[in-house]
Design a protein that fits this description.
Residues 195-293 form the Glucose-methanol-choline oxidoreductase N-terminal domain. By secondary structure, this protein is an alpha+beta fold. The chain has a domain at 5-150 and 174-187 and 194-291 and 372-392 and 426-491: FAD/NAD(P)-binding domain (3-Layer(bba) Sandwich). It has 11 helices and 20 strands. The chain has helices spanning 12-21, 46-51, 113-126, 155-166, 180-185, 204-213, 259-268, 340-347, 351-360, 395-411, 474-491, and strands spanning 5-8, 28-32, 61-62, 68-69, 100-101, 104-105, 172-173, 218-222, 226-231, 237-242, 247-248, 252-255, 293-300, 314-316, 331-334, 361-368, 377-380, 386-389, 416-421, 457-459. It has a 6-stranded antiparallel beta sheet. The chain has a 5-stranded parallel beta sheet with strand order 8-2-1-12-20, with helices on one face. Strands 9-10-11 form a 3-stranded antiparallel beta sheet. The protein starts with a strand and ends with a helix.
């Protein structure tokens, strides 16, 4: 055997699980297709990141109509978390239940918020979250406080907070995993969508992997792309086959490659015993793909400037839950501060106009739930290319959220409010392609993230999420990984 546990992927799920299992003393090998991000002049260069896309992989997928596009996924140690906005928000308690939305009913989870709460608390402590759970009325119960106080508002964001409160909204701090002083020491920019090469974000590499690799029984191997999993007639995973043809063996295999790549790997691993792919007796692998409905909303006053550098400290959940006959609409949070180069690259504006707008804009991110749909799915073409046929759902709720937000911002003193939805090229929290559930005929894994079909296969990334909710999934992925780690330790390593 090459290891006791093979973990495929070093993002938030894989890295957190490795940290949870490391104290057992079992030999753990993490296989990552990418390499470490190294410090470079492009780290804080908005034109390089957003204009030239220097960190994006040279990869092409097909959409539902067969048209090629370049996805915004990243392949490196730490996964997409190296570029994330570090928002570590718990799902609300109602997100675990069946809930009506304008676009349909969500199915609920096979576990409750209360069953995951201790893991949420442990994940917040592991990832050193900065926050305050007392300011948001939708915040679910916490068994403990955040490890650190919130990241402070900059003066212009403090003014925005007051303006929003005066029009009846309830602004609250975003729970964040970022060391502000360490981040700003590397450059005066926001962290949202910027790569972290100095350990200032609390991401999968700087926290999860760092903890795991402190143990001598844990090893990370980079540049190891996994091509397929092999299984026997009894359903056990017998080997992991790499792209170079080499095979690795372990009694326990964990897939944590991300919602799209995990589904593609399982489908690509089809064999005589599993002709439609591994873990796919339910025909649910690749189905129920969800990608949050998101829009950038820019609030401006022509005579006021926004001098903020990082900006991303404030969120609104006033529209999150049904109220007064209004349905659940979603979450609003600050984007990292948009600059002229970012706006010019994203909106195709002349640089002088983009600079003028960015100097005055307060940049918000409106996010609504995308509902699971079995026809929204990841499939493979005959040549192996990934086809992502995203069936966007619940769009009317998102349009209403943007409309309500614009109305509130105008009342708060911003006469000009612009909005632009994100398209499929932006990976807005992809999830759902290996859904969790109680019924093996309708789901891929159980509530501990173990495959229904293969007793020695676990999946610990966003693919297992039964619903997308309307907040960032990173903390929930970490909490589920900790839960899976406890289960593995108790059931597989008890002897």
């Amino acid at each position: 055997m090459d290891a006791d546990v093979l973990i495929i992927g070093s993002g938030m799920g894989g890295a957190t699980l490795a940290a949870a299992l490391a104290p057992t003393g079992r030999r753990i090998v993490i296989l990552e297709r990418g390499e470490h991000l190294r410090p470079s002049p492009q780290d804080r260069d908005a034109e390089a990141i957003f204009g030239r896309g220097v960190f994006r992989p040279a990869e092409e997928w097909l959409d539902g109509e067969g048209r090629p596009f370049t996805p915004g996924n990243y392949y490196n140690v730490g996964g997409n978390s190296k570029f994330y906005g570090a928002a570590l928000i718990r799902y609300r308690a109602s997100d675990f239940t069946a809930m009506p939305h304008p676009g349909g009913m969500t199915p609920g989870w096979p576990l409750s918020y209360e069953e995951l709460e201790a893991d949420y608390q442990a994940a917040e402590e592991m990832y050193q979250v900065r926050g305050d759970a007392t300011q948001d009325p939708t915040e679910p119960p916490h068994s403990g406080g955040y490890p650190h106080p919130p990241v402070p508002d900059e003066p212009d964001i403090a003014d925005l907070r007051q303006r929003l409160a005066r029009v009846g909204l309830t602004p609250a701090p975003i729970p964040l995993g970022v060391d502000l002083d360490a981040w700003l020491a590397g450059g005066r920019t926001t962290w949202d969508a910027y790569p972290d090469t100095r350990g200032a974000k609390m991401d999968a590499e700087s926290v999860g992997l760092s903890r795991a690799l402190a143990y001598p029984n844990v090893e990370l191997r980079t540049g190891r792309k996994v091509e397929r999993l092999l299984s026997d007639v009894d359903g056990r995973i017998t080997a992991v086959q790499l792209a170079d043809g080499a095979k690795m063996h372990a009694p326990l295999v964990v897939v944590a490659a991300g919602a799209v790549q995990t589904a593609a790997l399982l489908l690509r691993s089809a064999n005589e015993n599993c002709p439609t792919g591994l873990a796919n007796r339910s025909d649910q692998v690749g189905r129920n793909f969800m990608n949050h409905n998101c829009s950038a909303v820019l609030a401006l006053h022509p005579l006021r400037r926004n001098r903020s550098i990082y900006q991303k400290t404030l969120m609104l959940n006033d529209f999150y839950l049904p109220a007064g006959g209004r349905p659940a609409l979603g979450n609003v949070q600050m984007l990292g501060k948009i600059t002229g180069p970012i706006l010019a690259a994203g909106a195709g504006l002349p640089r002088f106009l983009a600079n003028a707008i960015a100097a005055r804009s307060f940049d918000l991110y409106a996010m609504s739930e995308d509902l699971p749909n079995p026809d929204s799915r990841v499939t493979l073409e005959k040549d192996g290319r990934i086809r992502l046929d995203w069936k966007r759902s619940n769009w009317e709720a998102h349009l209403r959220l943007v409309k309500e937000l614009k109305r509130a911002l105008r009342r708060a003193g911003f006469p000009v409010v612009l909005s632009k939805p994100f398209d499929r090229r932006t990976p807005s929290h992809q999830c759902g392609t290996a859904r969790m559930g109680r019924d093996p005929a309708r789901s891929v894994v159980d509530s501990t993230c173990r495959s229904h079909d293969h007793p020695n296969l676990f999946i610990v990334d966003a693919s297992v999420l039964p619903t997308s909710a309307a907040v960032n999934p990173a903390l929930t992925i970490a909490a589920l990984a900790l839960r899976a780690g406890r289960h593995i330790t108790r059931t597989e390593f008890a002897a």
